[in-house]
Q: What sequence folds into this?
């Protein structure tokens, strides 16, 4: 079963504030773009991924990522589909979902974070296979956040990203995917997370920002 993925991004200058200081301040936006580029390169090379829709706070600021085979749209400005008090991140996911669903009401929609620079296509494929059409999620390596949420075919994504989202997604009926999937669990929020993915092996864009030799793709 093929999946259409929504990936949200702030302006790279504004995003990943907890990661600030990991590289020289002037290079922070380039590092954020590199994390996303490695994530998206793995995603677009994975089997069973039909479309990848990047919902950007500022499409021009992430335009170079289109080369990787993703579609880029702007997040809604008036946030009319946001629920009161809710993170704008979830509104961005729902905006992408609505666009994909308009093209195919029966689509399987997924939500993926853009900060998985060690992602291996095989880990994503394994998660899709294990989900087998169920509403499902992958928790981050700390077990509190979510890196991937999958809707059941034709069913709402109902994203509940934010603090403690793993628990919120489980409470919403999503199955926690149980495999190891280290590259899919290793999101980068802090300098410590960056050290962790360096040890796992990052893709070529992040490696270039860190002055390293990239890991072999897999
Ligand atoms: N389009 C869009 N993307 C968002 C929004 N909020 C967060 N994101 C993106 O969603 C992903 C996950 O968000 P976080 O990991 O919390 O990232 P962040 O907000 O950049 O990080 P911190 O500033 O450290 O909290 C990142 O790729 C963000 O750029 C939003 O309001 N709109
Ligand atoms: C918003 C989330 O991401 P992060 O852990 O990257 O802040 C989340 O996991 O729900």
A:
């Amino acid at each position: 079963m093929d999946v259409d993925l929504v990936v949200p991004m702030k302006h790279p200058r504004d995003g990943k504030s907890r990661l600030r200081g990991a590289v020289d301040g002037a290079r922070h936006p380039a590092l954020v773009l590199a994390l996303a580029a490695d994530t998206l390169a793995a995603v677009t090379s994975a089997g069973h991924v039909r479309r990848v829709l990047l919902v950007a706070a500022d499409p021009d600021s992430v335009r170079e990522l289109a080369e990787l085979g993703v579609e880029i749209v702007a997040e809604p400005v008036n946030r009319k589909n946001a629920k009161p008090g809710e993170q704008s991140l979830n509104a961005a996911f729902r905006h992408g979902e609505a666009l994909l669903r308009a093209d195919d009401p029966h689509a399987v929609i997924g939500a993926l974070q853009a900060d998985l620079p060690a992602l291996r296509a095989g880990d994503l494929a394994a998660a899709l296979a294990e989900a087998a059409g169920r509403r499902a999620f992958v928790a981050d390596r700390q077990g509190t956040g979510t890196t991937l949420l999958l809707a059941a075919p034709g069913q709402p994504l109902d994203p509940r990203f934010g603090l403690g989202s793993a628990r919120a997604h489980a409470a919403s009926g999503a199955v926690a995917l149980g495999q190891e999937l280290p590259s899919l669990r290793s999101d980068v929020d802090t300098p410590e997370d960056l050290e962790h993915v360096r040890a796992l092996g990052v893709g070529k864009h992040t490696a270039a920002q860190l002055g390293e030799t990239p890991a072999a793709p897999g």
